[in-house]
Design a protein that fits this description.
homodimer; 196 residues; alpha+beta; NADH Oxidase
Chain lengths: 196, 196
């Protein structure tokens, strides 16, 4: 009763949505990816820095190269998912700040001097955007399978460059047979929320 | 057309939702916070590690202590918001893994040896959960004002402990007058999405 988001949307995005481990063969189209991006690009980031970059692995050759860098347990699903996306943080995001945050012309200068500060900010904010992306995949009626089990240095060398840090790899598609384990328990709110 | 989430929900969560800088006096209730948590707790994290911790700053005394650690530009809105939440990552999240990820008894052991690995995983996954939380605040019909401009060491010492890293501070409430700047531009998808 305390939420205004309708119950069907709550189910679609959170309550019935699950991390899928198997997928049907139905392709994920460019139109779907575009619609997901056009929705989730509005999610907030610090100074609108928007550091998330998305590499869609569509060719069989690229898929094979990616699978080789996945943890063994993630290889079969990464090989089988209709679409796989590498989500990365652009550590040179500050170059875009004059365009993205025009009402504060000093924004870029805050990051010019320190690659370390840029990496920290890019990772945090691209992680926020990765969550928005997962929500967007679900908003398209698809299941996301985000994975952290991969060789980050290998993926970076194979698909990205020194300025882009891979954060996670996401399988995308319609859930197949036995797509998930029973849902794990969540922490009671008393364990998570403290009031001062 | 490519999304199945209804258009009103898209607007509520992404398209019309904005980062608010001013708020009305209407309180944010415990019931609202509970409903937000009970929805967004289902958002996925790696091995269900769920490292996000939420500190609700409700007392006038605690609010004053928090405002002192905010960047100057963030102080007035942090002082005025109906509710302020400190979002932090629990770097000792692995202690909960036997409960949260019971089908892989070795999960805790993966993190026992390295505080650095725990911090990295906790930060990334608590950032994902911070985004789910922002979406949840919007699902409650409220505006969120996430802020990174604060003295992290000061906030950690004042409100948390060595095992909890503050990630962001979020003002929560109904938007007040002149609550936001015009929305900043977003990157074209061609700049963000690459296909291989």
């Amino acid at each position: 009763m305390s939420l205004v988001l309708d119950s069907a949307a709550q189910d679609l995005l959170f309550r019935e949505a699950r991390t899928a481990n198997t997928f049907t063969d139905e392709p994920v189209t460019e139109e779907q990816v575009q619609a997901i991006y056009d929705l989730v690009k509005y999610g907030p980031t610090a100074m609108n820095q928007s550091p998330l970059r998305i590499t869609l692995v569509r060719s069989a050759e690229a898929r094979e190269r990616l699978v080789a860098h996945m943890a063994e347990g993630n290889q079969p699903k990464t090989a089988a998912a209709p679409l796989v996306a590498i989500l990365s943080a652009d550590n040179e995001f500050h170059e875009e700040l004059p365009q993205l945050f025009p009402h504060f012309p000093g924004a870029k200068g805050l990051f010019d001097g320190s690659r370390e500060a840029r990496e920290q900010s890019a990772t945090l904010n691209a992680a926020l955007q990765s969550a928005y992306f997962i929500i967007g995949v679900r908003a398209a009626g698809l299941a996301a399978g985000p994975m952290g089990g991969f060789d980050a240095t290998g993926v970076q060398k194979e698909f990205l460059d020194d300025d882009h840090t891979p954060l996670m790899i996401v399988n995308i598609g319609r859930p197949g047979e036995d797509a998930w384990f029973p849902r794990g328990p969540r922490l009671e709110s008393e364990r998570v929320i403290t009031t001062v």
